[in-house]
Amino acid sequence: MAGVLDAAGAFVRALTGWRRFLFAFVTGCLSALSFAPFGLWPLLLLGFGALALLIDGAVTQARPIRSAAFAGWAFGFGQFLTGLYWVGYAFLVDSADHLWQLPFIALILPGGLALFIALAAAVSAYFWREGWPRIFVLTAAYAAAEWVRGNIFTGFPWNLPGYGWDASLAVLQSVSGIGIYGLSFLTILFGASLALLFAPARAKEWPVPAALTVLFVLIWIGGTVRLNASVPDVPGVRLRLVQPNVPQQDKYLPSLRAEHWRELMDLSLAKNGPAPTHIIWPEAAPPFLLAREGQALDDVAILTGTNRVLLTGALRVEVSPGREPTFFNSFFIFAHGGRLIATYDKFHLVPFGEYVPSFLRALGLSNVVNIPGSFGFGSGPRTFDIPGAPPVGPLICYEILFPGEVTAKDRPQWFVNVTDDSWFGPPSSAGPYQHLLIARVRAIEEGIPVARAANTGVSAVIDPMGRIVKELGSGKAGVVDSALPSALPETFFAQWGEIAFLLMLIFGVGAGLFRPIATSGRQAR
Fold first, then answer.
1. Does position 520 have pLDDT exceeding 70, yes or no?
2. Is the pLDDT of residue 524 over 50?
3. Closest Cα to residue 157, out of 353, 417, 402, 505?
4. CA nearest 68: which of 120, 26, 111?
5. 397 catalytic, yes or no?
6. pLDDT class for 516, splitting at 50, 70, 90?
7. Is 507 exposed, middle or buried (0-12, 13-18, 19+ CB in 10 A)?
8. CA–CA distance, 325 with 201 (Å, rounded to integer)
9. In which band, very low, low, confident or very high, does the pLDDT at 203 lie, cut at 50, 70 and 90?
10. How far apart are the C-alpha atoms of 486 and 382, rounded to whole Å?
């Protein structure tokens, strides 16, 4: 067995040129199968181990930093290309206007995101040394690059390494303390440490991967114990999530708008056990500007009656004299009798979907959502008091991606996440399932349940430990009737945010640089 490990490690380290590039790319592609809906988490760990071996080989080359950067870029490109392939479906909805953009986005998005991994690999190569400290250097650089990816230029924290534990809700419980970035740090460290087993020096270095194996076993045990606890329901609240399953290309056709509106109403009023107290429609559910449709508002008044509340995503527009109309991706709360009591505007807009920077619009690129210009930005997370239920925090689609940025100062007791995942392709597409997992992780981080209403799958009620109480799968029309789970007390992450991740980064840098400094000192003497 030792000989096989040594030979495999030597093979990967010896790769050069296009062979190293291809191996890194294929390894990155395979690592993406750890993310939902596949959940093959060992592939992600092996991927990080392979990347460490590739950098081992790169630092022996004439241009080590450049060689490592190319290997890191190829690994990242493969992972993002495979994990985010579904983004291309959005450009097929209105192919006449947007199909020509698809090749650019298919390369620019994964290629651009891969630059963060290339930078991490280059920094790692600069500080690379023999022995186990190099694993901590790679981990700190990679984890820091992922944090930057999730925050710079509005951020895109999709498929962070911690989400590779989709198959283990017990492991994911750790984010209630360390957050998804903290779990990502530990995941990278665990995977990269496997590289230490693929060389004769493992006789001295095996304690590092062994200790991390024990750590993850303890995390799993702790999560399993946590999941044994039950969560009570909020008394008197009965939710109905409406999933109309309208194909995106049909949604705004004038000839079908009345039919789509009637389907929303029929599903909302369907007799299916106890009558709902709170009805939730998905993102931009009405196929028109709801605030300007008198008959539709009359229907809402009938729907809400004297004892129901409607919470819905809807487009709205503001018109100022002498200026182009400004559209908003919004969320409306209608109380009894159709009285509009709150409006919330989305503040985290989707790049290329809902806004395009002006310099790119000058090149001919336009939003996938066909409106003049870009959507207007909202002011940030809000919490609203509503009749008959605890205070609610609305999150529209993409907004649930951002750790630590989903709650206002006055903490909500539940989230309503409205989305339209029909942009993500057919029911078999990975996009909706990845999006659902992200919502579950936000619930665990904050200790707050999520009611997730999607135009097409997956609509679900999620308890504050990330467990799915009830759901309706992708590609189906129907409703989810459920009680509302209670929120937990504030988690450590909710109180302290990324402090655990910051401490991990500091530790990783210290562990990675400690031995090289000591060695340098001995050489000087």
1. no
2. no
3. 402
4. 120
5. yes
6. very low
7. middle
8. 66
9. confident
10. 19
- In sequence order, the β-bridge partners of residue 451 are 416, 461
Phi and psi based region of residue 449 (left: phi greater than 0; alpha: psi -120 to 50; beta: remaining): beta
Are 523 and 148 in contact by the 8 Å Cβ rule? The answer is no
List all residues 6 or more positions away from 1 whose beta carbon is below 8 Å from its beta carbon.
none
Task: Tell me 355's DSSP state.
Answer: B
Using the CB atoms, write b or e for 370-393: b if 16+ within 10 Å.
ebeebbbbbeebbbbebeebbbbb
The pair of structure tokens assigned to 170 is 């017990």
Does 399 participate in catalysis according to the annotation?
no
- Judging by beta carbons within 10 Å of its beta carbon (0-12, 13-18, 19+), is residue 318 exposed, middle or buried? exposed
- pLDDT in the model for residue 278: 98
Close Cβ partners of 413 (under 8 Å, ≥ 6 residues apart)? 234, 390, 391, 392, 448, 486, 487
Whole-angstrom distance, CA of residue 5 vs CA of residue 166: 28
Q: Tell me the helices (H) and strands (E) count for the chain, helix number first.
A: 17, 12
Rounded to whole angstroms, the Cα distance separating 238 from 318 reads 34
What token pair was written down for 452? 């997730």
Q: Which one from 29, 146, 251, 283 is the annotated catalytic residue? A: 283
What are the tens digits of pLDDT across the range 104-146? 677 888 999 999 999 999 999 999 988 999 999 999 999 999 9
How far is the C-alpha of 333 from the C-alpha of 240, rounded, in Å? Answer: 14
* DSSP strand pairing (389-396 vs 414-419): parallel
Residue 444 CB contacts under 8 Å (≥ 6 apart), including other chains: 172, 173, 175, 176, 464, 465, 466, 491
Looking up tokens 């710079």 gives 152
Give catalytic status of residue 293 as yes or no: no
- Tell me: pLDDT of 98 over 60: no
Amino acid 349: pLDDT: 87
Return all residues near 93 (Cβ < 8 A) that are at least 6 apart.
248, 249, 368, 423
**Active-site entry in 397, 399, 446, 498:** 397
Position 430: which residue type? A
To which residue do tokens 């990242």 refer? 76
Selected catalytic residue, list 346, 405, 446, 471: 346
DSSP codes, 232-243: PEEEEEEEEEEE
Tokens of 323: 């200026």
Closest by CA position to 227, among listed 164, 168, 167, 163: 168
